[in-house]
Amino acid sequence: METDSEIAFNLQMEEALTDSLLDDAVSSPNTTDLTYDAVFGAALSTVLQNDDLYKYEVEILDQYKTEVEAKRLRLDLCRQVHDRAFACEISTVSEAEWRKNGDNLTRPYGEGSSSSKGQTLGLRVYVKGLVQGMVGGIGVAIRDWNDNLVFELNKGLGDKENRVNEENVELKALIEGLDAAVVLDLKGVTIVTDNPLLYQCITGKTPPIFKGAAALSSQIDLLLRKLSHTRTSLVSPQDIKSAVDLARKAIISEVNRSAAINNAKKLSQTCTICLEDTNVDEMFLIAGCQHSYCFSCMSKHVQFQLLHGILPECPHENCKSALKLESCTKFLSPELFHIMSQHLKEASIPISEKIYCPFARCSALLSRNELQRPTGDATVLWGRTCPRCGGIFCLNCKVPWHSHMSCADFKRLDPYPCTDEKKLKTLATENMWRQCPKCNHMVSLAEGCYHIHCRCGHEFCYTCGAEWTKKKPTCTCPIWDEGNLLHNRRNR
């Protein structure tokens, strides 16, 4: 059998080892001090943190921290028991003995620890569960034989906790109290409650009969078996005030937490595209239809539409509400903003009025109505001045101004004034491209039927250029070529 000095030495070594482990845990980097994002970057960090090995490591670390904290609590409790036992021993010393040996009366920590541990039987575990509305609260207080507080715990229970009711919460309070006693390595305790049903449940006189009690009762039996000695005491509510106060604090905390969650939900909305909860400050509300989406999804939607030459509209199915350029500054990059403003300007100018400045360094989109003749020269019929660059060009020929030459002579003498235009015409002829009769945009048929729907909205026949009206051709050309349709099917 171990002597008191050997027990004291073992306890001191155990405490020193635990303190060493705690120091290592505090000084070593962990997920709080050094994040995965800082080491690996955001993209790789997400992959690593989704890995099962990472989750297992985090779980092991959390388990280790819990065990270390429990060890610290047990050692602290042992010290308290030792100190209070020694204080009780001193209080029994007579005045004469104190004068004679008081200065030499000592008991280092660990001496007589076996008797000190035996005094844990005097520890009392007060448990209380309260219910207010749909919220419950648990209070646990552990006190020594001098009614000094050793340990306390409070915990709130919401409606998700198996539909909170009084019996349920009382049993959960008992489980928390017994679990704390096991963690603190208390060999024997007195369980104190003011609930007669809970008292009868602990003593085995009346087993709980409400729904879900069987699983909770099994937990209680398992925890009771881990304690060497237990007693149960039924007291009045006044004698369990410390646990009642803790339970009330837990209810208040749970109510405040639920209110904070509800307020946070009110301040966030779910984007119906990405289905993510997003702060209302980062949601874009479309004025015409009141549909709202997060900035990220709206930016991708507008970019996709613009790159396909389509003026962006509300992404909601069958909604045609237009997007206002000024409001889109919240989520558009400067490049996308410029592209969208150009598309809006193009859409605002009728096809018949649309023209581009022929000077290569300008190429500004213009409307015929805003063009003016060169100042001081009223005889120039087709001459116009670009308001952007100031260059003079021929409105009929769409080329820089040809002085002292009619449009007919200019076209006859120089049918391809621009080298690039001549190359484009040659390339279009070789590849059988067509120009839209309305906006002159070049169109290439890769596959499918000969019904062309141009980006400007005009519909025409790819073979002869005749207009389609009301989804029907005005010419007698074939609508499709079987080769194009078979090619399309093979690609699928």
As laid out across the biggest beta sheet, the strand order is 3-2-1-4-5
Main beta sheet: 5 strands, mixed
Query: What form results from the Cα inertia axes?
Result: rod-shaped
Number of strands: 20
Please report the distance between the alpha carbons of the first and last residues.
Answer: 85 Å
What class would the helix/strand composition place it in?
Answer: alpha+beta
Short description:
Helices cover 43% and strands 16% of the residues.
List the helices and strands and how they pair.
Elements: H1 4-27, H2 36-40, H3 42-49, H4 52-91, H5 95-101, H6 113-118, E1 124-132, E2 135-143, E3 149-157, H7 166-183, E4 188-193, H8 196-203, H9 213-225, E5 229-234, H10 241-266, E6 268-270, E7 277-279, E8 283-285, E9 292-294, H11 295-307, H12 334-348, E10 354-356, E11 365-367, E12 383-385, E13 392-394, E14 399-400, H13 407-413, H14 419-431, E15 434-435, E16 442-443, E17 451-453, E18 459-461, E19 468-469, E20 472-473, H15 482-491
Parallel strand pairs: 1-4, 4-5
Antiparallel strand pairs: 1-2, 2-3, 6-7, 8-9, 10-11, 12-13, 13-14, 15-16, 17-18, 19-20
Helix pairs in contact: 1-4, 7-9
